[in-house]
Each structure stands twice: as C-alpha cells, then as structure tokens.
Amino acid sequence: MAGHSGLGYYLRRVLRVSLETGTMAHLLHRVTGLLIVVYLFLHIGAMSYTYFDAGSGFDDLMATFASTPFLIVDLVLFAGVMIHGLNGLRIMLFDMGYFSRRQKELFWVMMAIAATSVLIATWLVGAAHGWW
Amino acid sequence: MITALTLQELDVENVVLRGVIDLVVFRIFRFDPARNDAPTFQTYDLPDTAGMTILDALIHIKENMDSTLSFRRSCRSAICGSCAICANGKNLLACNTQVNDLKKVRITLEPLPGFPMMRDLVVDWEPFFDQYRSVKPYMVARSTPPEKERIQDQKTRKAYDEAAQCIMCSACTSSCPVVWTDGNYLGPAALTKAWRFVADDRDEITRERLAMVNNEEGVWRCHTIFRCTDSCPKKIDTAGSIESLRKKIIWHQLTGRI
C-alpha cells in the first residue's frame, strides 16, 4: 500500500483537507514563503545585470521594472511579504504563550493589517506613477 | 418542493440540510488489501438522517445495505475514541457528530489520514500507540508516599485539567500535516500527554520529560497549524499544550535546569 507519510502523501492529502483558519494560515505561509524565495533569486539575477553590462543596459532594465505590469507584480510581492511576515509574528506570539485559544481571530486581525497596508502601498505606488 | 430524486440527479452539494433535504449520499472509502489493489469509493444513499449520528449511519449501512463494510466502534458515547474517522476532510468522532450538523448532502468518509490502512475505515494504530508509549504516559513519583494520598491543590489540578480529558482517539495526530510528512514526529496526542504530566506537580521526572520532547522530532517539529486543536472532540487545546511545553523548556534552559 502507498506510504502514509512523506512529501508526496502531504501533497495528495493537503488538497482534500477541510480549510479551517489555521490550515489556511499554514498553506498561505507555505505559498508566500515559496513566492519570496523565488523572488529572491529573480532579484539577485536581475541585480547582477550590472556585472555583465555596466552601461545603459541596467538603466533600461530598471525603466522596464517601473512599468505598470511590473509594479502590479511588485504589489503582489508586497502582499506576499506582509502575509508571511504578519503570520510569522502570529506564530511567534503563540510560541511565547499568547493567544493560542484566539488563533482564528488573530489570523484575521493580521490579515486585516496586511490588507490595509497593501491598499496604502497601492495608493502610494499609484500616486507616484500617475495612476490617479 | 425539491424531491430527493431531483437533488441526486442535480448532484447538489453544500445545501443546508435541515427541512429541505431528505436524502444524504455517503461516499465511503473502501479498501480490502486481500481483494483490491487500490482503494475505491462506494456510495450509499440514506434517506431520513434526522437525529442520526455518522456512526448510526455506518451501523445502518452495515446492517441493512452492505455487511462487508468495516469500521471501528465501541462505546457510542464519545469516551472510547474508537470511531474517529475523517468526514469531508475533517477528523471527528462518528458517534458524537450528527449527520445533519455537517450540512452537506454528500458526505465523504475516509479512514484517519497519516496511519497505515488496514481495511475500509480501519487504520493501524500501532504507530500512534508507539508514540504514546514513548513519552511515559504515567505518573512517576519515586519519593516515599505520604500516609494518605499525594495532596494537590485545586489550582494545580486545573493546570492540566484540559490535557487530562484526552481519550486517545488520535483525531489530532492524524489531522496534523506535519505527521503526514514526517512519520517520526511525536504528534500532538503524545505531546499533550507529556504536558499533562509535566504540569502535574506530583510527577517527579519533569526534567526527564522535558528532555524527552526537547528535540526536532518533539515539540520543535510542530508548525502551529492548529488542525489538532480544531479536530479534538474533547476541545483540548493540543497546540496550546505543545506551546506550553516549549515555553517550559525555554524557561528551564534559561535557568540552567536542563
């Protein structure tokens, strides 16, 4: 019979779980964590461009990154960082012995802070780039 | 008026049951290692589930529809922990969950995840009890006992009141995504049991107990997902017990006691 533990089992199983708040937080934490790691490598790759081309190529690349599609991706990244960071704070509070009976409420408080900060960031980015 | 037949034809899910639907479709996990290569799901339609627990439904199916169905049950009053199963992705006790409380017309019943399957809804609990035995789930008091009982005040008793409610149904350990990836992790049930004796001031091997769970397959493997707390039929904050153990371990380390 197929194994009952391991990464494969986890991936098969996790698609069929009931989505309680804590489980949702766990999955969001994994997905946003992977997103940030992928971004880190993309970032290092893009920044090392100067190593190969110290001329205007880097400035052109930066100009591309300031275009609307890239700014939208930046905001998605910002949302990912906020969700991951705030959920990390939530977990640290549990580790220090607080709120374990209030974990669901705490998750939504953290997500409300994340949503507010993303809205403010969107407004600021939009104002700086003439979206409104 | 919606009839049962049209509902089944429409394959309607997520409809609030009470007063509307008079038929529930049970999708039950079937697997007999002696006869099948792979598990399958078999459906059983049950009319009139009002007042019926999931265990009642299983017993009804076994007695009237399919006698080959296997599942565990014993006390039928939520104290033995034998009938823990996974219903619609959530671990619970079949005997104290009303079918209609799930508010679904289609209910998928599976064996507890994370354990080796034996047959149908029956899993092999040996790994679970191995973890349980490894934390010394009994009080150790080596000092000379007093003339009568070992006195404990009410406040101290209250510290492990919750953890002492555990019926060892394994719903928590089985619901833990960390257990699904790492078969060596002690799991919430064993750790809650460890906390039960750490918090008990009559127990005299606190330091040994803390050292037992102070490793990467112990309290530090927990990812604080709270599925264990969510699935506990006795409403024990199992994740909170693990956090309490961590706090105690750190405090002991800071003060040089372990």
Give the structure's gist in a few sentences.
The complex is a heterodimer of chains A (132) and B (258). By secondary structure, chain A is mainly alpha-helical.
Question: What does it look like?
Answer:
The complex is a heterodimer of chains A (132) and B (258). Chain A is mainly α. Chain A has one domain (20-128): 3 helical TM bundles of succinate and fumarate reductases (Up-down Bundle), CATH 1.20.1300.10. Chain A is built from 6 helices and no strands. Chain A has helices at 7-14, 21-47, 49-52, 56-65, 68-95, 103-128. In chain A, helix 2 (21-47) crosses helix 5 (68-95). Chain A is extended, with a radius of gyration of 19 Å. The model of chain A has no long low-confidence stretch (mean pLDDT 90). Chain B has 258 residues and is α+β, with helices and mostly antiparallel strands. Chain B folds into 2 domains: 4-123, Ubiquitin-like (UB roll), CATH 3.10.20; 126-254, Fumarate Reductase Iron-sulfur Protein, Chain B, domain 2, CATH 1.10.1060.10. Chain B contains 10 helices and 7 strands. Chain B has helices spanning 4-10, 54-64, 126-134, 154-159, 171-175, 177-181, 187-198, 206-213, 227-231, 238-254; strands spanning 23-30, 40-47, 84-87, 90-93, 106-110, 117-119, 122-123. In chain B, the strands form 2 sheets. Chain B has a 5-stranded mixed β-sheet, with helices on both faces. In chain B, helix 7 (187-198) crosses helix 10. The longest helix of chain B has 17 residues, at 238-254. The N and C termini of chain B lie far apart (69 Å). The model of chain B has no long low-confidence stretch (mean pLDDT 91). At the A-B interface, helix 1, helix 2 and helix 5 of A face helix 6, helix 9 and helix 10 of B.
